[in-house]
Amino acid sequence: MPSGIIRIAQRETRRLRLGLLFFTRIPVGAMPDFEPAELAHSTRYLPWIGLLIGISCAVLFGVVNHSLPTSVAILATIILSGVLTGFFHEDGFADVCDGFGGGSSAKEKLQIMKDSRIGVFGAVGIWIILTSKLVLLSEVGPGSIGVLLLFGQCLSRVVPLLLIYWLDYVTDDEAAKSKSVAHGVHGKEIIIGLLAILPLLLFQPIACLVFAAVSLVMLLIVGTLGRSQIGGYTGDLLGFSQQATEIAIYLAGVILWSSV
Description:
Shape: globular
Structural class: mainly alpha
Distance between the termini: 48 Å
Helix content: over 70%
Radius of gyration: 18 Å
Strand content: under 5%
Number of helices: 13
Order of helices and strands: HHHHHHHHHHHHH
């Protein structure tokens, strides 16, 4: 194998591992000579990481649902997805709920979102998204739940990738969670991220197109909201976009498959 191809494979493998290190709690081993700026290139693998999490959740659902009620199996998948990511995106969702709900100006919103404490808006937001996942997934047939988990976890992570490409990063906080991924998302990153959708498109083409359209709508909604409320995006808004899009995809799944 040519040395150039080997170097590219090693470089991309390292970037995937960095993505897993930053966006999940999945062990990836030691990362020698790590530079925070490298994380900017790891965002291209967000949808691929979502696909991996979706596969894990679908497999767990199938195993648990074999011997326990479907609602218990769904609950197990919700817990697993949170454990695999350290509830990283849920935390961002709660922070945005607190900031947008409690702040009257962009500066106040950003200050509230940086506060590690959770307020009533954030607490209610967490309850809403977790309950929504349980309820919506329960409304489709067991045979469709695993498929819906794949689409929800993968496509929902395309939206934050596109938000980084579209909007400006709006905080100067050096400790901000997304500081290292705030720059460097270009056309190549978008293309590599979108390739994760290809297996789903081949597997369920009509459903994939529907859920992709839902994801684009959520991109426009969250992007417009972020630009109007705080002038761009933060790491918390990226987490918010992932969770909100996941819920929207599950809702679309209910509309498509509730009678299955």
